[in-house]
Inverse folding.
């Protein structure tokens, strides 16, 4: 498995699956979630609505998959990160579950190149350096998996990019 780092817009990455830092409602929102829904078009929202009708909301740490609409990826994996509340409510474990469950779901669907945003570091206020360490450790748990070809961390902002660059060296 190759781990790559890109500073850019996750909605422009050509991979098997991009991961969306979604909210529990799956109905779109701000940040990366809003960007994915806007650029991907109504197909993503239609799929999310169907998931909501059959399964309800998506709990933090879990992941669901939809079509990618107009995005260059084949699929979108939506995962709900934890809201940072000081670190005493299993936020770190929940964040690790986001990455691991997204990878498991991708592999179940034959998707071997996956791009991740910086989950929970925006409006959910997870400390960026802690989040980066957790993300890299969670992904490294899949080292040696025969099917997982590449995981790409896509950082929209310079601060996250610098943190990941430092940790991945």
């Amino acid at each position: 498995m190759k781990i790559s780092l890109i500073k850019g817009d996750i909605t422009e990455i050509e991979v098997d699956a991009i991961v969306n830092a979604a909210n529990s409602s799956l109905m779109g929102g701000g940040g990366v979630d809003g960007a994915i829904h806007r650029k991907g078009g109504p197909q993503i929202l239609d799929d999310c609505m169907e998931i909501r009708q059959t399964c309800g909301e998506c709990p933090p740490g879990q992941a669901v998959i939809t079509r990618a609409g107009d995005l260059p990826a084949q699929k979108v994996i939506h995962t709900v990160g934890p809201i940072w509340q000081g670190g005493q409510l299993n936020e770190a474990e929940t964040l690790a579950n986001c990455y691991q469950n997204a990878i498991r779901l991708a592999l179940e669907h034959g998707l071997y190149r996956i791009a991740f945003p910086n989950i929970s570091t925006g409006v959910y206020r997870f400390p960026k350096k802690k989040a980066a360490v957790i993300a890299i450790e969670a992904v490294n748990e899949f080292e040696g998996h025969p099917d997982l070809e590449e995981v790409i961390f896509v950082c929209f902002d310079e601060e996250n990019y610098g943190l990941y660059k430092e940790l991945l060296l």
